[in-house]
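Handoff note, outgoing to incoming analyst
You'll be picking up this chain. Sequence as last confirmed:
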Amino acid sequence: MRYLPELYRQQRAALEERGWLDALAEDFQRLCHPDRYRLQPRESWRRIREHSRLRGAQRAVLRELAAWREEQASLHDRPRRWIMGDAVLVELTRRMPKTLDDLQHIRGLPPATWQRHGETLLARIAAARAEPPEQWPTPSRRLLLNPEQEAQVDDLLTLITTRANQYHIPIRSVANREDVERLLTGEDSPLRHGWRAALIGRELQADLGGDSRR
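Most recent structure output, in case you need it:
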């Protein structure tokens, strides 16, 4: 901890020298907002990439299992992937085991987990399956692009990759395809905010005609 003040001064000086402090102001403000750190276990399922491929009751099961993982991670102060990986959550969701014997056949589920938490997991799965359809969670709305827009997304990703390489920033840290699709169709996107906007986002919006709606 005693080195942090000096590290902070060095990093701030480097950012100021490169003219990045203003670009990062919005991101710093967001990091300081209490809502960012307020636990919302029942929304954590949306962070799992495979959730968009699930249907109906499967989404309810994933929501309950992801919430359980989030609660366990918070309780034991452990990274969520140490509690259970995304792939195991999805496997549980798709197979919806009903018995402890079924749990033993879930690929990637450690024996210690089903022995210690098996009954809890089964109860969560059963409760989610029993929910009426109107209570099933709804996925984020998928954007439907025409062929011309798909080609535009590819072009924009190429521009972003070039700029990211110029600044030695991993492309995945700047934007993914969905971020670009949302920018192109006028939706909110990380490319509209903070350092990403300063790096390339505002330039892309200008090229697309300002509000990016086409």
